[in-house]
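re: ur question from earlier - yeah i can do the single chain one, its not a big deal. heres the input i used so u can compare w yours
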Amino acid sequence: MPFGFKAPSSKRRKNRGEEIDEMMDYLKGGGSLAIGIQKRFELLPEKYSVLLLASQDKYDLLLMNLVKHFCKKNMGGIIVTLNKPGEDLIALLKEHKVPCTGLFIVDGISKKRDHELVQDSRIAYIETPQDLTDMEANVIDFVQKLPPGKKFFILDSLSTLMIYNSEKVVERFVHRIGERLRSSSFQSVFMIMEGTRPEIMNVLSQFSDAVVAIGPEISP
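and the output i got, formated as tokens:
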């Protein structure tokens, strides 16, 4: 074959209708959320702590795409889950085809709900979301098990945390653990539900590098 000559591709070109159908499937799977996350997070510094506004109806998709965003960069990390049992969260990750081998979970809800506990070295259980001391201790324990380099941390709902703790206690917790993780090269995300009172958001944003919202114009 002469140099510079490119053989025609045998792959059939998709027609416009097929391209639209494929894009709709992508959006239904949360693809637009992935685009939104990438666009907003790529502007942040190498180490950061942010508040991420979440709506209840898109919680699962947002969390999955957020984890996928970090795992695509081969980052290990820690998730503190207060909405889903750790076992269910791992199953949800598998369902959404999110491969993340270096992932640890601090489960703050299973014992509170008397959910059956699965013995898994990747999951640590705490008695209640009120026990922030135990929560932080388990996070720090997992920090030491992660390899050097960039890492991520997600707390899936500050709104849930504020059901079990006073606002002042949560504010101090976010400030303390956010600074500790930043010093260990973490990219930290604290999810909080839309509609949180502005005065709470104002205080929490003081401990964050940014408040990130994935707007309706790019959500499925």
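Helices lie at 16-28, 31-41, 59-71, 86-95, 132-143, 158-164, 167-182, 198-205. not sure if urs matches, ping me
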